[in-house]
Amino acid sequence: MTEFELPPIDYAAIAPILIIMGAAVLGVLVEAFVPRRLRHPVQLPLALLAVLAALTMVVVNADKRVITFGVIAIDGPTLFLQGAILALSAVALLLVGERAIERGGAFVAQAAITADSPDDRRQAERAGGAGEVYPLVTFAVGGMLIFVSANDLLTMFIALEVFSLPLYLLCALARRRRLLSQEAAMKYFLLGAYASAFFLFGLALLYGFTAGMGDRQAGVDFATIHAAVADSTQSPVLLFAGMALVAIGLLFKAAAAPFHVWVPDVYQGAPTPITGFMAACTKVAAFGALLRVFHVAFEGARWDFTPVLGAVAVLTMVVGAVLAVTQTDIKRLLAYSSIANAGYLLVGVLAPGPEGLSGTMFYLVAYGFTVLAAFAVVTLVRDADGEATHLSRWAGLGRRSPLYASVFTFILLAFAGIPLTSGFISKFAVFAPALDGGHAWLVIAGVLTSMVLAFPYLRVVVMMWLSEPGEATPTVTVPGGLTSAALVIGVIATLVLGVVPGPLLDLATGAADFVR
Amino acid sequence: MSDFPFLSVLTAAPLVGAVVVALMPRSRPTLAKQVALGWSLLVLALSVVMWVTWQVDGKRFQFRESYPWIPNWGVNFTFAADGIALVMLMLIAVLVPLVILASWHDAESSKRSVPAYFALLLVLECTMLGVFAAADVFLFYVFFEVMLVPMYFLIGSYGGHQRQYAAVKFFLYSLVGGLFMLAAVIGLWVVGGKTFDWVALSEVDISTGAERWLFLGFFIAFAIKAPFFPFHTWLPDAGGAAPAGAAALLVGVLDKVGTFGIIRYCLPLFPDAAQWFAPWALALALVGIIYAALLAVGQNDLKRLVSYTSIAHFGFIGVGIFAFTTQAGTGAVLYMLNHGLATGLLFLVVGMLIARRGSALVSDFGGAGKLVPLLAGVLLFAGLASLALPGTAPFVSEFLVLIGTFTVNKPVAVIATLGIILAAAYVLWMVQRTTQGTLNPALTEIDGMKRDLNLREKVVVAPLIALIVLLGFYPKPVTDVINPAVQATMEDVGRTDPAPSVDTVQEASR
Q1: Chain B residues with beta carbon closer than 8 angstroms to that of A352
Q2: Is residue A184 within 8 Å of residue A114, measured between CB atoms?
Q3: Which structural domain, as residue segments, surrounds residue B307?
Q4: Number of domains in chain B
Q5: Cβ B163–A454 below 8 Å, yes or no?
Q6: Contact A458 B168 (CB under 8 A)
Q7: Per-residue pLDDT for A79 more than 80?
Q8: Does a structural domain hold residue A4?
Q9: What is the number of structural domains in chain A?
């Protein structure tokens, strides 16, 4: 009988994960035992405190470079991305916790009630929001933290499920337009399940591939795969097939074309705070994993995957940019913009060396803050039926509420990559190393699609400022303190990262080295 | 005194002013206007001090200052001015107060915030000054792009007919050019050893293929900005829709960024590619001269007409740049200044006419000179200056461009000269149809047309007229500043002027 030996565990190194997971479990207990009216006041501070405590632990760990538990790699990219996920999710939690805009917040109590049935309408009108959103979000954050630090594919798969399942549920909880919300959740779940299956199948093929290394043991940890790519005597068919299937699973989460079809529907149907959370944090997690898989495990096969992944990047940019032009709903527009941004991020992933890595990580943080601020504004523009997301309703907003229109204009300029915003710096941060690495075609595709993408952003600006307000122009709700805080953080981050990006770039450069 | 950080203070000052003006209450528009005017005069005073401090025989780049910005990428806040930049900075500093004064009542008709209009003008001044003062390619790019934003809102929020369409078209055209340039900027950074410093980059050797692509990236951006044929279609729309003051800045200064960029970046950084592409650039410039002039003749909208004349003038500047002689180059730079003064004046005067009549159509005027003789006189003067009548400043520059080109490329010079004839046609015909001839009876019923230039408007046009005449007779102070910079640029390109062929003259006289 084989003796199992407990691998050495560096508890300090995985403290952020433990704190978040602990808080999530605690959140479930709160939901079970605390009286209903007290749940929200308890849950929100609990979740926020946990995130801040975890963030503190990440900062404390800043110089750690270990592989602990055998499967968790705590290194520069892990810590940087964990920090990013935690910081962004803190802002997202502020949006999730907002109760001043609408009674019970953006969520219903029970997702499972048939949409548009009398019960459903009653709960949408009167019932308080589900307190479960907090533990669900916290679980998702925990899963993301593991996802970016996973050092083998199996751990990565489990983390993928841990953060995906809560997200599927959260998508179904929108208070308004229930049918869209439930449809979004269903679609996301089904397609997500497929993507997970692809990932799992690829994992199995890769295991088979690593088995051909003579006396070395087969495995799916990244060091073994890395060694197998260099030494294996097996036919590379298994490697290529496995690599492709794993990539599909990850690209699905990253919202890259042609695995993007879920994005517009889910972004539109999900409660807006959750959309913001997905656009910011899921992106960080998915690209964190992509970076680790392709920079560590498959590094030796760079020549093989670059053309394919490059084609995916170009396709993603083109699809995102071109389809964004035709959108009439602000959430769908932002969804396609998010797809295009996934393309730019892929350019960064393909850029070789630490510059590409640090550029991509910078991009993730900068984009995350901007997109959260954008969705924060979307939650504010509303009428009696909830958020007014159709673009025609935004006409003349600049006249009705110049402050929020200015803020949103600034955000759109950042998306368009105008200098003095973080959008410009982050584009530069991924394009420069890509060009340096000889991928001029990717940069040219990026620049061309940026031109196309500028048009839909500009159209919104024109709508807000240059059109006369119509009868249907909704007013902007005065935001509660939490949304204001999220908005201010997002906008200030966009401005500061655009004007003085030096410190964060330094941090990203210092962190751009994987442990192997 | 020379240690004073002139350029950064000059660039930052209007921005501070803009913030102050923007914070003024909407209920007190006059105060906002006065503060904006005062602030722009302050900037003018500072630039005059710079002009006086400038050492004509000194280094090519003066007032250099540099502060680190993004050390990871080697980006610095580096400001430095050569003679060309100094002249353009002066032009901006002179034009902005006049434009503010000329636009005194422009913002009121639009039902939008008056302080915001003047704040935007000051932001625009900041970015325009920055774009000419920057000596770091990254910094230049930043100003180049940010410049779009205030102009976009000036056109879009305060413009006339079709302002939305014009504003979006302006923004998209410029952004497209800017993104091409971004790709080239990144490429330059990669091949140039990860630095953005202009001086360091000008000494880098680039392979022929890469050099041509990079040249093209920059050139397209500048050709759209200038604009050269066939990238010009945004200008008549933008110029036609913008409020007159903003249009004067758009055509008078903003478009010069294009030609300035070619002289400062395309030629010295990519000298071989510049020579390789020169025939094409010359061809575009020539087409622009003739084509835009023909279109100008046919325009019925005054502001669009002036916009088209500008495109023709930019053709001349393009010819002067790509002839690669010191004379033509000096002529081109001088043309940039003089065109700013003359077309700026023309736009402002046309704006005054339009404000009185309430229409921009030439056919709505006729015999206006009988009602507003002084205004008609100024219009005639501005028109004559812009067709380069001897005695006005543009004549000197156009003449320099043509003789400088003639020494090296006779066909181009001859074709360009045709443009002068067309210029006479469009200017004189426009003047004739608006102010001369029988009085259009409809005009007498409009109260505005009975008021000739008031004191404010006289103060606006007087300095411009004085400068145009002064520089027409005595351009030496300006050419002294420009000449060394142009010579240095030509040396960067590696072209020397053809030696004057004295022998043949002697033989002929024998």
Answers
A1: none
A2: no
A3: 276-500
A4: 1
A5: no
A6: yes
A7: yes
A8: no
A9: 1
Tell me whether residues A419 and B142 touch, CB distance under 8 A: yes
A382 with A371: CB under 8 angstroms? no
Residue B189 to residue A440, Cβ atoms within 8 A: no
Task: Quote the minimal CA–CA distance from B43 to chain A in Å.
Answer: 23
Query: In angstroms, rounded to a whole number, what is the distance separating the alpha carbons of residues A421 and A497?
Result: 7
Which residues does chain A have within 8 Å of residue B176's beta carbon, measured at their own beta carbons? 451
Kindly list the residues from chain B whose CB atom is less than 8 angstroms away from the CB atom of residue A425: 70
Q: What is the ipTM of this complex?
A: 0.89
Which contiguous run of DSSP H or E holds residue A275?
A: helix A272-277
Q: Are B61 and B80 in contact (CB under 8 A)?
A: yes
Around Cβ B451, how many Cβ atoms within 10 Å?
12
Question: What tokens were used for A300?
Answer: 């030796």
Mean pLDDT across chain A: 89
Q: Does the beta carbon of B12 lie under 8 angstroms from any beta carbon of chain A?
A: no
- Is residue B374 assigned to a domain? yes
**A67 domain-assigned:** yes
What chain A residue is nearest to B186 in terms of C-alpha separation?
A: A432
Least CB–CB distance from B183: residue in A444, A458, A509:
A444
Q: What is the pLDDT of residue B505?
A: 47
Q: Do A428 and B149 touch (CB under 8 A)?
A: no
List of chain B residues with pLDDT < 70: 1-2, 110-111, 499-510
> A180 with A269: CB under 8 angstroms?
yes
Judge whether B29 lies within some domain. Answer: no
Q: Look at residue A156 in the predicted model and tell me its pLDDT.
A: 94
Model confidence pLDDT, tens digit, residues A194-214 = 999 999 999 999 998 888 777
- Residue A3 maps to a domain: no
pLDDT of residue A471 exceeding 80: no
Is position A10 within any domain? Answer: no
Q: Is B172 close to A454, i.e. CB distance below 8 A?
A: yes
Average pLDDT over residues A36-49: 90
DSSP assignment of B49-110: HHHHH--TTS-SSEEEEEEEEEGGGTEEEEEEE-HHHHHHHHHHHHHHHHHHHHTTTGGGGG
Q: Which of B171, B172, B182 sits opposite A447 (nearest CB)?
A: B182
- Is B453 domain-assigned? yes
B323 within a domain of the structure (yes/no): yes
Pairwise CB contact (< 8 Å): B153 & A465: yes
Work out the minimum CA distance from B36 to partner chain A, whole angstroms.
22
**Domain interval for residue A186:** 15-511
Q: Is the pLDDT of residue A435 over 80?
A: yes
Residue A251 CA to residue A248 CA, distance in Å, equals 5
pLDDT (tens digit, 9 = 90+) per residue, B234-267? 888 888 888 888 888 888 888 889 999 999 988 8
What pLDDT shows up at residue B502?
Answer: 57
Residue with tokens 């760079």: A302
Residue-wise pLDDT for A115-165, tens only, equals: 778 887 777 777 777 788 999 999 999 999 999 999 989 999 999 999 999
Q: For residue A178, is pLDDT > 60?
A: yes
